[in-house]
Amino acid sequence: MMKRLLTIPIILLLVTALNAQEIPFPGFESWPGTNNNSPEGWFANNPPTGPTTVFASLNSHSGMFSAALRVLDVSGFPLLPTLSAGADGTGFPVTQRHEALNGWFEFTPLTGEFFDVLVSMWSGGPGGTLIGVGNFSTSTGTTDYTQFSAPINYNDPGTPDWCSIIIIIGINVSSTGAQAVVDDLSFGSASSVEPIENGLVPDQFELTQNYPNPFNPTTNIEYSIPEGSFVDLKIYDVLGNEIETLVSEEQAAGVYRADFNAVGLTSGFYIARISAGNFSESIKMTLMK
Fold first, then answer.
1. What is the pTM of this model?
2. DSSP state of 87
């Protein structure tokens, strides 16, 4: 099984998780030039003529396009970009109690701007009862695609039937020129990763067996990197389909613990695979519900 994983065709690495299917066109690949010049399945606050605040970008995380946002100067005043899910901007139907909205972004602030993603879960359709809210916000710029996660906090035990997503660049002072790109949205788990402070620097790369194992629905995955490296830690099913990305970022030398939450997944075997520099390793995990 480990050898099969090492030869997974690259196209499988780009397969979007099934949870992305409820989000309309989560990869922003279709830009029909209608509906206020918005990406298909979304609504942008573009002005009727002239430059646009939201547009197709070839700087994509996967596929051909991503959605780019920029703050425009309109007669000396900033026009902030807003991208809302749904052709009319009100959202889309859902059938599950999703734990988090995940995606990939790059952000170039100039004078204190912030990139913000707001996800809201409703019962009773648009304008119904708000039962869950998630948010991701940062004012820190990135030079490469970085994964974000907006954990959804629910105040009601029910299952939502409608979701709204709003993506913006906000400003604290009157300024223009900040830009961001966003791509590959998906629903998933609110996984986290944190360093284990033990005062020691590991002398080799290592991925240890998850614990507990078997697990239901959460488990811990620890790994060690002896030098600063770009780390990818991903979860696959036994067919080689990518389920979730837990880590995709530059990390300093150290020992780390990643939490994997398999809520919404079926019982069975799953594979955790790490790559860092020239190192790669996989472990098999058992989800037992």
1. 0.65
2. T
